[in-house]
Amino acid sequence: MQESTQATGRARSWTALGLVLGLTLTVCPKGAGAFELAFPVACTPGDDCYLQNLFDHDPGPGAQDAACGPLAYDGHDGTDIALPTLAAQQAGVEVRAAAAGIVQGARDGMEDIPQGTDGAPDVADRECGNGVLITHEDGWETQYCHMARGSIAVAQGDQVKVGDVLGRVGLSGQTEFPHLHLTVRTDGQEVDPFAPDAPSTCGALPATDLWAVPLPLPQGGVTNAGFATAVPEYDAVRAGTAAVAPVPDQPLVLFGLFFGGREGDEVQISILGPSGEEVLDHSEPLDRTQALLFRAAGLRAPQGGWPAGNYRGTVTLVRNGAEIGRQEITTDMP
């Protein structure tokens, strides 16, 4: 089973029999043909999950996704399907086989501890974490990485159908956030499911990709939003524990977590009161490109406290005047 190369950019591989050498191939990938991929996570992109990092199409030291955007990093060889919070991961989200095939390798038992935190294990030569490798017809392979410890539901030699459960999204291996890293290969070469015939170029997306159901290439968006009584800590936002019930005599704060922000984008944060009146209308431009960012805005309680009733918050990411992501949320003031 080949390891993800997202940490080092160098191919490493392992099978159930032991370590094997990764090979650098120069052959051109096959076209999409009849091979198709079902979405491999039990979630809806843009709703309860999002595509965080995509395949790197820059052959040099830089990084670009298939559309020449910033949703990639140097050497990233797959597609990262991320959950918005640790709470979502802990609730359990299934990873499913993207195509029918035979399990060539599986690993379980690695701890779900993000790299860079206390107690994080050494994952050298095990960057994929808990994972599964499946071979398909005509030289295709799919690899599923960073799954939860104790969740792997298949073993070497098992035959799987499209949609069969392989495990759950986790935090094992070389990862800092809960996600599935999906790598697709044809004849041993990694390819981008959004642009399988153009691994080293970017630009206009091809008419043919590998997704069985059309999946728009993400441009950025909003992954999480909530109300609080103070600007929350970033770690609490990522964990999914930042939202706090409003209090009439406390500040009213709305926060948002965004992905794929680019320099010049605008973050908009607004709140409407119980009668539809504007309570907050905040906007700010982004001064740099960021894969993941957090913003919050709010107001102190007015004299006499906030009126009771339902408050509606909207968090929006805008690019060149067009909305590319939005999340709405409501809360009741006692």
What structural class do helix, strand and pairing data support? mainly beta
Our estimate of the beta-strand percent is 35-45%
- Percent of residues in helices: under 10%
Mean pLDDT reading:
89
CATH class of the largest domain: Mainly Beta
Helix run count: 2
Write the CATH homologous superfamily of the largest domain. Answer: Glucose Permease (Domain IIA)
Terminal CA distance reads 55 Å
CATH topology of the largest domain: Glucose Permease (Domain IIA)
- Global morphology: globular
Summarize the biggest pleated sheet: 8 strands, antiparallel
The CATH level-2 architecture of the largest domain is identified as Distorted Sandwich
Contiguous low-pLDDT stretches (5 residues minimum) are: 4-32
Structure description:
This protein is mainly beta. It has 2 domains: 1-215, Glucose Permease (Domain IIA) (Distorted Sandwich); 221-333, Sandwich (Immunoglobulin-like), CATH 2.60.40.10. It is built from 2 helices and 20 strands. The N and C termini lie far apart (55 Å). The model is unreliable at 4-32 (pLDDT under 50).
